[in-house]
């Protein structure tokens, strides 16, 4: 895959990386299909990463000291980042990074030590001094420029305890568009070998943020979700590191969810009718303000959503019935069209808000043989954002809002539950009764995730590898009339084993763990078989 070739180019000739010393990096959070890790410690923390955005490329290091500590990596990165224009361009280096410029003196590369300006082929900067030129840097990368950014956010987070690091740390105002974020978590140090393939670890399967503050804002004044009536919704799958459930049935099925994507935010409701419900008006007004982020800009609402316009206008914001426009603060639409998919994704990545509503069950029923994960229009927009609509149905009801602290701690999240199941498999940790009750949901979600078939995504291939390892470690129960399924864990392995086999790059290696007593039947190659269709 293309990402593997990118990784080989950047890490070529490197056997190990020495992260020992006083320079403590940030753990990087990766989302979307383009970002991939370059260096990962044994805890599954990402210390270096790379990505694409638009026509350009980005390399992010978890500490600015790494710009001089790893000259071989920087030289490789410059080769990978250099636009294919035939002539090597100028590498701009931020003024405070004189030592980086000195390190590059031996390279046949023309460098300039100055603030960012147009005309550079590549720009090297720390993550602390980019706030004033963030928009220019994003435009530079989108147009084909290369960017190396290095820094850590944990000390910034300690100095700004009330701030949202994912949104407000200066470096994240640039790198986030490419799906890479500096987190407030410190990375573990050591000497780590450089694997031949993109590194992955089950320990890295977790959520990238505590969503308590977001839920407190969104659920202010909300005690229940009244979705009673005839509207039949779809289930939402929340699979991204920066995506989170908001409204969930007692059975653990999500019907409203949120996410961070790039610099922007997303709210997904699993029926478009919910966006015009008076019974949900308090939540909807909170949600539109969360998406607007106090810009007080124009809220563009798809002209067919008159009910949503009526409810959202109560927010006091400027709500207009209009198609998608780049000058909007928030766009409100349905999930039934992907006509402007790329434009909407770019709009959100660069700071816009998206409220999107719709269901996928009717589409799934009327498109037999199609894959709702890959073919449903709304999922073309949503999958990159860590959300998707499933083909099953959810009936209406009156659902109480759980206590936020408890919800954050005990509520089901696909990535957290998969992490716990991997701990159970790899470390022998016992699952609680509550976690045992979530295994059926986990099996369904694993199967749905695998059906995305996004083999060019490092996140997806890492998940396939993790689930393949689990199948090999646990095995698939050999079920028959005399040996029925005994537990929720057996159900999960039956479900996951089948789907892993379908998407595995080496299905023959998986098969013995799915069918353990295969008869050793003879095989014949290059044989001609005559088939008659006469059934009389």
Q: What does it look like?
A:
This protein has 536 residues and is of the alpha/beta class. The chain has 3 domains: 198 residues, no CATH class; 199 residues, no CATH class; 79 residues, no CATH class. The protein contains 22 helices and 22 strands. A hairpin with a 2-residue loop joins strand 4 and strand 5. The mean pLDDT is 93. It comes from Cirrhinus mrigala (Mrigala). This is TRPM8 channel-associated factor homolog.
Mean model confidence by pLDDT: 93
Strand order of the largest sheet: 3-4-5-9-8-6-7
Report the count of strand segments.
Answer: 22
Stretches where pLDDT is under 50 for at least 5 consecutive residues are none
Compute the number of helices.
22
Report, as a whole number of angstroms, the end-to-end distance: 49 Å
The amount of beta strand, in percent, is 15-25%
Helix content: 25-40%
Shape estimate:
globular
Task: Summarize the helices and strands and which ones pair or pack.
Blueprint: H1 2-11, E1 16-18, E2 26-30, E3 36-40, E4 46-53, E5 56-61, H2 66-69, H3 71-81, E6 91-93, H4 98-103, E7 111-113, E8 122-126, H5 134-142, E9 146-150, H6 154-159, H7 165-168, H8 172-175, E10 180-186, E11 191-193, H9 212-218, E12 224-226, E13 233-238, E14 243-248, E15 254-261, E16 264-269, H10 281-292, E17 298-301, H11 306-312, E18 318-321, E19 330-334, H12 341-349, E20 353-357, H13 361-366, H14 372-375, H15 377-382, E21 387-394, E22 398-400, H16 404-410, H17 414-427, H18 433-437, H19 439-450, H20 458-474, H21 488-503, H22 507-514
Parallel strand pairs: 5-9, 6-7, 6-8, 8-9, 16-20, 17-18, 17-19, 19-20
Antiparallel strand pairs: 1-11, 2-10, 3-4, 4-5, 12-22, 13-21, 14-15, 15-16
